[in-house]
Amino acid sequence: MEIKVITENKKQFLSLLLLADEQEDMIDKYITDGTMYVLEDNGVKGECVVIDAGNRVLEIKNIAIRPDCQGKGYGKALIDFIVRKYKGEYSVLQVGTGESPLTIPFYEKCGFVRSHSIKNFFTDNYDQPIYESGIQLVDMIYLKRNL
Length: 147
Ligand SMILES: CC(C)(COP(=O)(O)OP(=O)(O)OC[C@H]1O[C@@H](n2cnc3c(N)ncnc32)[C@H](O)[C@@H]1OP(=O)(O)O)[C@@H](O)C(=O)NCCC(=O)NCCS
Prior knowledge:
Blueprint: E1 2-6, H1 14-20, H2 24-31, E2 35-40, E3 44-52, E4 57-65, H3 74-86, E5 92-97, H4 104-109, E6 113-118, H5 121-125, E7 131-132, E8 135-136, E9 140-146
Bound molecules: coenzyme A.
Coenzyme A binds at residues 19-20, 63-65, 70-76, 97, 102-103, 105-106, 109.
């Protein structure tokens, strides 16, 4: 397994990016400034994008594993990589997600705890309602872990 930084043509991985953030113009808001990593293990299995959120906080803006490769530890491997790489440089790693049974338990398994939320983030910022496991995403839930 190898994790590589991608500096050019990050949108070649658009199909993966859209798994985590389904509206392309929302991805455009962070893809240029964000640092992108791709996990390869006999081909690309997943990606993540992080940005400097200020105040020694690093934020995961996008993380996705190919649907046929989920549940095999690749997502956790990307988080562990980010933790190792940015420990010392940042104090906190944070991520925002919907109130979804597909994502929150994953982050909790990776050592994140719930921090705060932004009311109506998904309904205010996305053109279409977003559903995960039949639940409409409304508020953005932030989770954090120390680095
Ligand atoms: C969320 C996502 C990145 C997780 O990556 P993954 O490779 O499937 O997760 P892992 O296999 O590394 O799982 C790590 C741990 O979390 C647990 N976990 C993962 N998803 C879970 C879920 N939905 N419910 C409960 N536990 C879950 C795993 O069981 C594993 O636990 P273990 O360490 O005890 O075995 C991946 O499923 C994905 O790409 N989803 C679609 C895109 C997306 O929603 N991205 C997040 C946007 S906020």
